[in-house]
Amino acid sequence: MDDFLLPVEFRAAWVYRRLGIYLSAGALLFAGALVAIERIQRDFGQLPNQGPGPEYVAATVAACSVFGLVPFYWKLRVDQHGISRRRWSGWDHWSWEEFASGRFQLGNRGLTFRDTRALWFRTRRLDLGWLDQHDREQVWRWIELVWIPSPTVTPDEISLNLFGTDVRCTSRGMTVVRGRLSTDYSWDDVESLRIIRNHHRNDDFRWLILEVSDWEMRLRCHQGSQRWRGPDAETIARFLTRHVSDDRMLICATLDPPRTAQEADLRVDEAWKKMNLTRKSCTFVYVVVVGLCEWYSVTREPVVLGFMLLVLQPALLIYVEHRSAAKDYDKNVQWQQELLEQLDNSTDFVEEKDDIAASSVA
Question: What is the pTM of this model?
Answer without folding.
Answer: 0.64
